Structures are given as structure tokens and as C-alpha cells.
Amino acid sequence: MMLRTVSSSPLAPSVKVKLITAGFHTAADLTEVQPLQLCKAAGLSQEDADEVLRALRDEDAPLQQGAAVQSVTALDLLHQEEALGRIVTFCSELDSMLGGGVPVGRTMEICGVPGIGKTQLCVQLAVDVQIPVCFGGLGGEAVFIDTEGGFVVQRLMGVAKAAVEHCAALAEDEEQRKALESFTVEKILSGVFLVRCQDHVALLAELHLLHDFLRKRPQVRLVVIDSVAFPFRHCLEDLSHRTRLLTGLALRLARISAQHTAAVVLTNQMTTRVWSGQCRLVPALGEIWGHASSQRLVLHWEGTQRFASLYKSSSHRDASAPYVIT
User: Which of 5, 32, 63 marks a domain boundary?
Assistant: First the structure.
């Protein structure tokens, strides 16, 4: 039985009101409904009806009655994770702390104050995910969702040029030299798909469409949202509604990472919280959002040195590593 409720789905509020008013409260209520029937029953446009059915049915397909229960052993999971690989950061201390790099098939949140290097790290990952397999990379592509307008293509070009030069210096055999022929700055730029989302409505709509895009381009192994906090910080006065939207967002991102074997990397801002009479910097969006990702990396200053601290991980202990932005 499908348990997803319409009210908890990340559909537009106006669409959810029409569905609930028409008597559609869960995804199960829409199992046998056709788009034209939904248009008439709920007063939706053809486009909205198609989007509702696609969103709810796709997300809850594994929960339909009669679906076979599939199981794997812990050893199978270990082999699967090892086969998926990791995205290196080119910072040896950081890669070591993360167990070899950013894991594919999981979500990671990168938090920090402005200017600490969150966007720079994401740009680095968007390049590194494209490193050829013969150099220890994944040979993939990246989707970069920019919500703050901080993406600068010149920065991407600089990182891409450095990556190409680094791999060229490491080339030792014919296979690697052959791979360098297609690992160029132009090829790297064409492997980063940029999406600009200016508010939470655009962000949620883009994530609805992302499943179809990733199905058509299975070589995408990285999805970046820079940042997840910006669209939600000031546009929603109803905190309970914002919490529901964020919960739906977290679930969708987890599905994207698992179903499409892609690393999902989110950046988050820091906010001030008073604790025991003292002000502390903590990641934005509240404590509930802290459970949205499987790993949380906090970038911070210690004097004049930048540090990355792993505060939450399902597979590695808390640790810190210095890093430098060049």
C-alpha cells in the first residue's frame, strides 16, 4: 500500500489544496486515476495533472501492493559501495578523512561562513568527477544547481585547466595518454550542467524534473545544490510549512543519490544561536535538517588556517583536516 500523503509531498501548495479538496489525500488515491480524470476532478490543468501523477507515482512505486521484496547481504552492500567509487578533492588530508573522497550514492552537506570556500569546493568536485577512470576518477558529469548566483564560469575554467595539467603530469602509460586527448578544458565545461534557481519554488520544481534528466544521462555522478539554505531562509513565514518542504526535499535528494548512484552535495550557511548565554555559529535550517544528509562537513577558520571538520558520518569518525584554496 502506498503511504505517501499529498500534504507531505513537495507539490505546489495551490495544487495540494485542490487535490485534498477533491478527496485525494494519499498517493494510493491516485493509483487508478488518469490525467484527464484528475483534471476534471480537481480542476487542474493538463500539465499540473501530469506533474502530480509523475511525482507521486514515481516516488512511491516501490511501495505498491504486490511488489516483490528484494534483499541483499551486508557483504553485497560493501561490494556495491566499493564499486561506486568516490570523488577526490585533490586535498590529500581531506580525502583521507573522507575515506578516499566524497562517496557516490550518498548525500553530503558542506557548511560554513561566507568566503570559507564552500562554492570553490563544489566547483572542484564538479571537475574532479570527470577525471578519467584510468587516472582513478569516475569519468562522469555534474549537475550544478546555483541558488545564490555565486557560480563563476571563469573559476570553473581555472580549476579545469589545473586538473588537466595535473593529470598530464601523472600520465605514465598509453591508456592514460589516450584518455588525455578527450580530457580537455572544453570537455570539462561541457560536462557541467548549470541550473539557476532563484527561490524555493524553482528549486523544488527543478528537482521534480531532475529524475528524468538523470535517467537520460546516467553518466551524471554528482549533483550540487549551492546553497540549499538561501531559497528557504526568508521566503516562508510559516515555519511548519517550511519544515514540511525541507523534509520532502531531503527525501527526494536521498532518492536521487540512491536511485541514480550519484553523490548529492549541498552547501549550507551558518546562523547565530544563543546557547547558555553565549552566541554560537551553527548550520542554518534547524536541527531537523541536520538529519537530511549522511555526512556533514563544516568548514571553519582556526586563526589564519582553513579547516574542514567532519561532524557527522555513518562510516567515519569525527575528524578535522586543514585545506588551502589556490
Answer: 63
Q: Which positions ≥6 away from 21 have C-beta within 8 Å?
A: 42
One domain, residues 226 and 318:
yes
Q: What is the CATH classification number for the domain harbouring 316?
A: 3.40.50.300
Q: pLDDT (tens digit, 9 = 90+) per residue, 33-43?
A: 888 888 877 88
Per-residue model confidence (pLDDT) at position 4: 66
Write the Ramachandran bin of 261: left for phi over 0, alpha for psi from -120 to 50, otherwise beta. left
CA separation for the pair 297, 93 (Å, rounded): 14
- Dihedrals φ, ψ of 144, to 5°? -120, 110
Condensed to tens digits (0 to 9), the pLDDT of residues 75-86 reads 777 777 777 789
Q: CA-to-CA distance for 189 and 108, rounded, in angstroms?
A: 23
CA end-to-end span of the chain, whole Å? 53
Residues 297 and 110: beta-carbon distance below 8 Å: yes
Percentage above 70 pLDDT, the chain: 90
Cα–Cα distance, 185 to 224 (Å, whole number)? 20
What are the tens digits of pLDDT across the range 151-178?
999 999 999 999 999 999 999 999 999 9
